[in-house]
Amino acid sequence: MRTVFFIVRKEILQVLRDRIMLVQIFVPPLLQLLIVAQAMTFEVKQVDLAVVDLDQSPASERLVERFLATGRFEVTLATASGDQADAALLTREAGAVLRIPDGFARMWARGMSPTVQLVLNAEDGAAAGVVQSYAGQILADFSRDEAPSVIRAASVRPGVAVQTRTLYNPQKEYLGYMAIGLLASLMTLVGILLTAQNIAREKEIGTLEQLNVTPITRGQFIAGKLIPFWILGFIELILGLLIIGGVFRISFAGAVGWVFLGTGVYLLAALGLGLLISTVVSTQQQAMFITFFVLVTLLFLGGIFTPIQSMPGWAQTIAEVNPIKHFVELLRTVLMKGGGIADIGRELVAMALFATVALGAAIQRYQKTAA
């Protein structure tokens, strides 16, 4: 352990003296968390609306006002020409077109159900679905509140009442969900990329061969190399949590101690993968290319940006052996849902198994190639 301590001390001093590495460790990840977490969202905050009101009645005006009152819709074009509205949709001057037919108020007053058309730009299917949901709720509220007495009297009948409760994220804000996912990706970047680059650097400058002929065992060397980055990972975690809680004002529902426990296990998996990559490369440039390929694959199959449940079956199967997927679920379960050890036990076991396999394979390959 005394030998490992001196190796760890040497690595920490080397990192502190390397200004480029210090910047690489702290500045880009934290800036990404600050900027990208607020930019990457599927929430639709404003929709440019083109209105084709062929009725020009008080009832049609009240319907348009309902859309404006939500703060999510802004009328950028009011016209009687359907072709002009379609052109606005084509040129992205409008993201949706609301068509109110002639005779809307007359049919409404007679207790009939007029048809209102909503045309959406569905280039982005997810955003179009969100806009459709917003508009559907507005139209449902308008129908309930503005319905003529004849319709209200006819619709009073026994039925099933639905009461909706929104758990874990009552405000339906996307920032906390994305920020926690990005925190997992930044931890992965530190764990895999820096480990692979550090050992590849030892190969480039020739110090790895010198270390191999010293009395230091391979186990001591690997432990001394990985422990500093394991510690740096925790520093990165603390800074990330401070940004999420202090800057974004997101409260944590669960005990942060479980997050530290999960992070400790996950960093072993990430460091093991970085060590494994370092055994198959000879230069830092090669390490960066392979790490980039691995990171992109793991991140997009990790449930950070898209739900695992929406992926094809084969992708969901691959995701089960992806440590990022389990780490993201652990973070969100603890920080957003207030989960405890019983709720994250499966994720801890999965990450521990991956860490065992990755570290074992890396050490075995290192023994074969670094002698």
Overview of this protein structure:
The protein is an alpha/beta fold and 371 residues long. Mean pLDDT is 84; it is low at 149-162. It has helices spanning 2-17, 19-39, 58-69, 82-90, 104-109, 125-146, 149-154, 175-205, 207-212, 218-247, 256-278, 284-300, 313-319, 323-335, 341-369, and strands spanning 47-53, 73-79, 96-100, 117-120. The protein is elongated. Helix content is 67%, strand content 6%.
User: What's the number of extended β-strand segments?
Assistant: 4
Average pLDDT rating: 84
Largest sheet: 4 strands, mixed
Could you estimate the helical fraction of the residues in percent? 55-70%
The secondary structure category is: alpha/beta
Rg (CA only): 28 Å
Distance between the termini: 22 Å
| Shape estimate | elongated
Number of helices: 15
- In the sheet with the most strands, the strands line up as 2-1-3-4
Low-pLDDT runs? 149-162
Give the helices and strands as they follow along the chain.
HHEHEHEHEHHHHHHHHHH
Strand content: 5-15%
What keywords describe this structure?
elongated, four-stranded mixed β-sheet, 15 helices, 4 strands
Summarize the structure.
The chain is of the alpha/beta class. Helix content is 67%, strand content 6%. Residues 149-162 have low confidence and may be disordered.
Secondary-structure blueprint of this entry?
Elements: H1 2-17, H2 19-39, E1 47-53, H3 58-69, E2 73-79, H4 82-90, E3 96-100, H5 104-109, E4 117-120, H6 125-146, H7 149-154, H8 175-205, H9 207-212, H10 218-247, H11 256-278, H12 284-300, H13 313-319, H14 323-335, H15 341-369
Parallel strand pairs: 1-2, 1-3
Antiparallel strand pairs: 3-4
Helix pairs in contact: 1-10, 2-8, 2-10, 8-10, 8-11, 8-12, 8-14, 10-11, 11-14, 11-15, 14-15
